[in-house]
Write a structure and sequence with these properties.
The complex is a heterodimer. By secondary structure, chain A is mainly beta. Chain A has no helices and 11 strands. In chain A, strands 2, 4, 5, 6, 9, 10 and 11 form a 7-stranded mixed β-sheet that branches. A 4-stranded antiparallel β-sheet of chain A has the order 1-3-8-7, with no helix packed on it. In chain A, a hairpin with a 2-residue loop joins strand 5 and strand 6. Chain B is mainly β. In chain B, strands 2, 5, 6, 10, 11 and 12 form a 6-stranded mixed β-sheet that branches. A 4-stranded antiparallel β-sheet of chain B has the order 3-9-8-7, with no helix packed on it. Chain B has a two-stranded antiparallel ribbon with strand order 1-4. In chain B, a hairpin with a 2-residue loop joins strand 7 and strand 8. In chain B, 33% of the residues are buried.
């Protein structure tokens, strides 16, 4: 069974440009999460989808970030316009919808560098 | 609010030494889950263990062992007889229980370097 995949693995863009990150969760996983790790800091939660609905987007830093999960399958995270402080590693994770159990499987991350 | 603290930012050991990673957490929830993840140089986060707050039994899996002490809000991780392949960043994490699909709160991570 394929794990969580993320594309691209690396992205280097200039300040003010737009970047779209993609995450393909494990097939059958209703829960999809985005996290990010800014250099030297802890991994922080951004948002959580249950199927195509946003369950919790309390961690989204500002309205330059837009996440979608059309059809409840893959998800995209768009940053527009990108700022220097957006640089970091963006992780996606997915989990099966099962009450009381929360093992999240993580993808390899997308390393975003904003110059 | 939940918080996870990993006071050790980096630990360097020589192969075959034991290494213990500290994790202290804060939560108001009475029921919660604790996790450890490993991030090898390849970058992905690899799940190591999940522990329920109501289960304080320590656990051993091969060279890995975990010591959960609710009284001190700690969930420490020990690698016995470390190997070079153990070199990685290790993250401790916490999530609420009661509903599936809750977010993880991570500590800052501890980088372990095992030298041959």
């Amino acid at each position: 069974e394929a794990g969580v995949t993320q594309f691209p693995s690396h992205s280097v863009i200039e300040k003010g440009q737009t970047v779209t990150l993609r995450c393909d969760p494990i097939s059958g996983h209703d829960n999809l999460y985005w996290y990010r790790r800014v250099m030297g800091k802890e991994i922080k939660f951004l948002l959580h989808f249950v199927k195509e609905s946003k369950q919790d987007e309390s961690g989204m830093p500002n309205n330059r970030f837009l996440a979608e999960r059309t059809g409840g399958t893959y998800s995209t995270l768009k940053v527009q316009p990108a700022e220097l402080e957006d640089s970091g590693v963006y992780f996606c994770a997915s989990s099966f919808e099962r009450r009381g159990y929360n093992e999240q499987f993580f993808g390899p991350g997308t390393r975003l560098t904003v110059l | 609010a939940q918080k996870v603290t990993q006071a050790q930012t980096e630990i360097s050991v020589v192969e075959k030494e034991d290494v213990t990673l500290d994790c202290v957490y804060e939560t108001r929830d009475t029921t919660y889950y604790l996790f450890w993840y490993k991030q090898p140089p390849s970058g992905e986060l690899v799940f190591l263990i999940r522990r329920n707050s109501f289960d304080e039994q320590n656990e051993i899996s091969g060279r890995y062992s975990w010591n959960f002490q609710k009284s001190t809000s700690s969930f420490n991780f020990t690698i016995t007889a470390s190997q070079v392949v153990d070199s990685a960043v290790y993250f401790c994490a916490l999530s609420e229980a009661g509903a599936a699909g809750n977010k993880l709160t991570f500590g800052g991570g501890t980088r372990v370097l095992v030298k041959p």
